[in-house]
Hints:
5 strands
Amino acid sequence: SLSHPPGGPICLNPGSLSSPRDYSPPSYALLSSDSIVIKSLLGGSLLAQMELTAGSPQ
């Protein structure tokens, strides 16, 4: 699913934060004009995070 608050980043898959569809940790991605942030949660705590920014090496 997709959520886009006015003036804010686009949030992909926000529904998985409260109701994951499988047994993997819930995750979501925030997209803005210059970056993508992917976060994985476990028990309400941040398990892992990855950020890709415009111009960053692959």
